[in-house]
Design a protein that fits this description.
Elements: H1 5-11, E1 17-18, E2 23-26, H2 32-40, H3 58-70, E3 74-80, E4 86-96, E5 101-109, H4 118-133, E6 138-144, H5 148-157, E7 160-170, E8 176-185, H6 189-201
Parallel strand pairs: 5-6
Antiparallel strand pairs: 1-2, 2-3, 3-4, 4-5, 6-8, 7-8
Pfam family, one: Acetyltransf_3
GO molecular function: acyltransferase activity, transferring groups other than amino-acyl groups
Protein name: N-acetyltransferase
């Protein structure tokens, strides 16, 4: 499969991705209340090293992400438990069709879903689609230098650090973010896939 105009359209399709522990549902207004509760779970929206919409900002944030999807900028999902309960968000971010690359970003989970099998299976679903359905040659991840929890989670996937973009972004509180860039390239995908499957089989 080539990453041509036809496949570019496919990558922007709001597909449902379903695993044993998680459902990635195309983001919509029906997720506002559940995601507001997820944001309040552990008050994750207060974390300074990332941006999580506050409960009262959830409706506007979902509208913005749907608009960005319509502009071809991202593919947003609500991260849900098997029963449909929303516990966070994730997306394909910064789609680069000519170079067959995507970033998995704008990802967050409520506190009770962190450290469970939700995140590794969500990443398995997203990476499988990227490499096996869409013929990507690389998938990126980016996070705050000081977000050590996020960095550990990305490294646990098997992603390798490409570098650090210093003073890359201005955070909502006015601080400057050094952004750590990671990636998984196509030749690494079989090993990464095996590692994620082994994690999901473990107790």
């Amino acid at each position: 499969m080539r990453f041509d105009g036809r496949v570019t359209g496919a990558i922007l399709d709001p597909v449902l991705l379903v695993g044993e522990h998680v459902r990635l549902e195309p983001l919509g207004p029906q997720h506002v209340e559940g995601l507001a509760r997820a944001s309040a779970d552990g008050e994750v929206w207060r974390k300074w090293t990332t941006w999580v919409p506050a409960p009262g900002q959830m409706a506007a944030t979902i509208e913005e992400r749907i608009a960005d999807h319509a502009r071809g900028r991202m593919v947003p999902w609500a991260t849900c438990l098997p029963d449909g309960t929303p516990v966070g968000m994730t997306s394909y971010w910064d789609v680069d069709a000519p170079n067959r690359r995507v970033e998995i970003g704008a990802t967050w989970l409520g506190a009770s879903a962190q450290g469970t099998k939700v995140n590794p299976e969500a990443k398995l679903l997203q990476l499988t689609r990227a490499f096996e359905d869409l013929d990507c040659i690389a998938v990126e991840f980016r996070t705050h230098w000081h977000n050590r929890q996020s960095r550990r989670a990305i490294e646990a996937l098997g992603a390798k650090q490409d570098g650090v973009l210093r003073n890359h972004r201005i955070m909502p509180d006015g601080t400057l973010r050094d952004t750590v860039v990671y990636s998984i390239v196509r030749d690494e995908w079989p090993t990464v896939r095996a590692g994620l499957r082994a994690r999901l089989r473990s107790a």
